[in-house]
Amino acid sequence: MRDGVVLGMERRRRWTNEAKLAILGEVGMNGWTVSDVARRRDVTRQHIYQWRHELRRKELWPADEAPVFLPVEMAAAQEAEAVTEPGGTAAEITVVLGNGRQLRCAGGIDDGKPSPRAVFLI
Q1: Which of 27, 43, 111, 118 is the least buried, fewest Cβ under 10 Å from its Cβ?
Q2: Could you tell me the residue range of the domain that residue 34 belongs to?
Q3: Mean confidence (pLDDT) of the chain
Protein backbone atom coordinates (compact mmCIF):
# COMPACT_ATOMS: atom_id res chain seq x y z
CA MET A 1 0.00 0.00 0.00
CA ARG A 2 1.34 3.38 -0.92
CA ASP A 3 -0.42 6.69 -0.18
CA GLY A 4 -3.72 4.87 0.32
CA VAL A 5 -3.53 3.09 -3.04
CA VAL A 6 -3.13 -0.68 -3.15
CA LEU A 7 -0.42 -1.63 -5.60
CA GLY A 8 -0.73 -5.18 -6.89
CA MET A 9 -2.63 -8.05 -5.36
CA GLU A 10 -2.95 -8.18 -1.60
CA ARG A 11 -1.96 -11.58 -0.31
CA ARG A 12 -3.96 -13.20 2.47
CA ARG A 13 -3.12 -16.79 3.27
CA ARG A 14 -4.93 -19.23 5.49
CA TRP A 15 -2.94 -21.66 7.60
CA THR A 16 -4.25 -24.94 8.98
CA ASN A 17 -3.48 -25.88 12.56
CA GLU A 18 -1.20 -28.65 11.25
CA ALA A 19 0.80 -26.17 9.16
CA LYS A 20 1.09 -23.80 12.13
CA LEU A 21 2.30 -26.64 14.35
CA ALA A 22 4.89 -27.65 11.75
CA ILE A 23 6.21 -24.09 11.54
CA LEU A 24 6.25 -23.69 15.33
CA GLY A 25 8.11 -26.99 15.63
CA GLU A 26 10.99 -25.58 13.57
CA VAL A 27 11.80 -22.90 16.17
CA GLY A 28 14.78 -24.06 18.21
CA MET A 29 15.59 -26.91 15.81
CA ASN A 30 19.20 -26.73 14.60
CA GLY A 31 19.53 -23.46 16.52
CA TRP A 32 16.92 -21.65 14.39
CA THR A 33 15.33 -18.60 15.98
CA VAL A 34 11.82 -17.27 15.46
CA SER A 35 13.27 -14.75 13.00
CA ASP A 36 15.03 -17.50 11.04
CA VAL A 37 11.88 -19.59 10.75
CA ALA A 38 9.76 -16.55 9.83
CA ARG A 39 12.14 -15.67 6.99
CA ARG A 40 12.25 -19.26 5.72
CA ARG A 41 8.45 -19.61 5.78
CA ASP A 42 7.72 -16.07 4.53
CA VAL A 43 5.68 -15.03 7.56
CA THR A 44 6.22 -12.36 10.18
CA ARG A 45 7.63 -13.08 13.63
CA GLN A 46 4.34 -11.83 15.06
CA HIS A 47 2.49 -14.60 13.20
CA ILE A 48 4.60 -17.20 14.98
CA TYR A 49 4.06 -15.66 18.43
CA GLN A 50 0.33 -15.24 17.72
CA TRP A 51 0.01 -18.85 16.53
CA ARG A 52 1.82 -20.09 19.63
CA HIS A 53 -0.63 -18.20 21.84
CA GLU A 54 -3.64 -19.34 19.80
CA LEU A 55 -2.63 -23.01 19.77
CA ARG A 56 -1.94 -22.97 23.52
CA ARG A 57 -5.43 -21.61 24.06
CA LYS A 58 -6.81 -24.45 21.89
CA GLU A 59 -4.60 -26.87 23.88
CA LEU A 60 -2.82 -27.99 20.69
CA TRP A 61 0.58 -26.58 21.74
CA PRO A 62 2.06 -27.51 25.11
CA ALA A 63 1.85 -24.87 27.79
CA ASP A 64 5.03 -23.61 29.39
CA GLU A 65 5.97 -26.12 32.03
CA ALA A 66 7.96 -25.67 35.18
CA PRO A 67 11.61 -26.69 34.88
CA VAL A 68 12.34 -30.32 35.60
CA PHE A 69 15.44 -31.24 37.55
CA LEU A 70 17.07 -34.50 36.60
CA PRO A 71 19.29 -36.50 38.92
CA VAL A 72 22.99 -36.44 38.08
CA GLU A 73 25.53 -38.88 39.38
CA MET A 74 29.03 -37.57 39.92
CA ALA A 75 31.84 -39.84 38.79
CA ALA A 76 34.57 -40.72 41.26
CA ALA A 77 36.71 -37.67 41.89
CA GLN A 78 40.22 -37.67 40.50
CA GLU A 79 43.16 -36.81 42.68
CA ALA A 80 43.98 -33.62 40.79
CA GLU A 81 42.48 -30.49 42.35
CA ALA A 82 41.68 -28.71 39.11
CA VAL A 83 42.15 -29.62 35.50
CA THR A 84 43.51 -26.79 33.41
CA GLU A 85 44.15 -26.55 29.72
CA PRO A 86 47.38 -25.20 28.28
CA GLY A 87 47.31 -21.44 28.61
CA GLY A 88 46.08 -21.46 32.19
CA THR A 89 42.30 -21.53 31.63
CA ALA A 90 40.13 -23.95 33.55
CA ALA A 91 38.50 -26.86 31.75
CA GLU A 92 34.91 -26.50 30.63
CA ILE A 93 32.13 -29.07 30.69
CA THR A 94 29.60 -28.82 27.85
CA VAL A 95 26.34 -30.78 27.75
CA VAL A 96 24.64 -30.71 24.34
CA LEU A 97 20.91 -31.37 24.52
CA GLY A 98 18.93 -33.19 21.85
CA ASN A 99 17.46 -29.96 20.45
CA GLY A 100 20.93 -28.46 19.93
CA ARG A 101 20.94 -26.23 22.99
CA GLN A 102 24.01 -26.32 25.22
CA LEU A 103 24.73 -26.22 28.94
CA ARG A 104 28.28 -25.12 29.79
CA CYS A 105 29.96 -25.17 33.17
CA ALA A 106 33.37 -23.57 33.47
CA GLY A 107 35.82 -24.43 36.25
CA GLY A 108 35.68 -27.20 38.81
CA ILE A 109 32.46 -28.65 40.13
CA ASP A 110 32.26 -29.42 43.83
CA ASP A 111 29.73 -31.80 45.30
CA GLY A 112 26.72 -29.78 46.36
CA LYS A 113 28.14 -26.42 45.31
CA PRO A 114 27.33 -25.06 41.85
CA SER A 115 30.04 -23.14 40.06
CA PRO A 116 29.48 -19.37 40.24
CA ARG A 117 30.71 -19.13 36.65
CA ALA A 118 28.17 -21.53 35.12
CA VAL A 119 26.79 -20.39 31.79
CA PHE A 120 23.42 -21.73 30.67
CA LEU A 121 22.56 -21.40 26.96
CA ILE A 122 18.94 -22.52 26.87
Answers
A1: 111
A2: 1-65
A3: 75
